[in-house]
């Protein structure tokens, strides 16, 4: 709606955090590097944690895209995919349901068909497919997003059992847990699992400098050539969002809309504070 007013080719802050050209903090880049190294070297397991809105899911999606792009550029002679990502989107499954879910994902990718069985049969299916995938040169990555929602400690026991399957060159499996900060303490209380974590990546809010780079970078990526947000506006955005990318997105998106409706040429701190107050009023209504 407001794109032409600001000289944009697309909304720079609409929707969730972008996975294409995402400009995050140093902690985002460090997490991406560590998780990629974890996968490429089969280090076992890793943890990605941070408060809501910092971009955990975005980092995981970027990780998948980067590895896929790298795979496409190398054009494996065998024709087999180098990586098989298995996202677990339902963290509140029972141990038996979890095994069945993972087995179904592996089997469906291979044959397009799977009939749920017992926990033991699911475990056998998982072992067989992990072995076959490894033999074909494919590494399997289990991704547990929102893992702080796992309430049944037995589920962690099942996951640890799956991790025990991993053998270099025979059955390669990498496990990544992503979740809110309480996940760190939850895993720490399970010492055997905690000791399997090769990397613990903590996402941090953006600093003022990083917030400025994020906002101006997103605007430039959307085709904007003008400095729409003044210096004091950028400071206000950082203050009001606490450096959380999702909040920055919402605040900037609404500010651009209001600026368009009022035919403004530039947004200042006064505009940002007014927009923030309006957003809070709408939430309270």
From TrEMBL:
Pfam families, sorted: AAA_22
First and last residue of the signal peptide: none
TM annotation in the entry: none
Domain ORC1/DEAH AAA+ ATPase: 42-183
SUPFAM superfamilies linked to this entry: P-loop containing nucleoside triphosphate hydrolases (SSF52540)
InterPro entries listed in its UniProt record: AAA_22, ExeA_AAA_ATPase_DNA-bind, P-loop_NTPase
UniProt GO MF annotations: ATP hydrolysis activity
Top-level taxon: Bacteria
Protein name: ORC1/DEAH AAA+ ATPase domain-containing protein
Organism per entry: Planctopirus ephydatiae
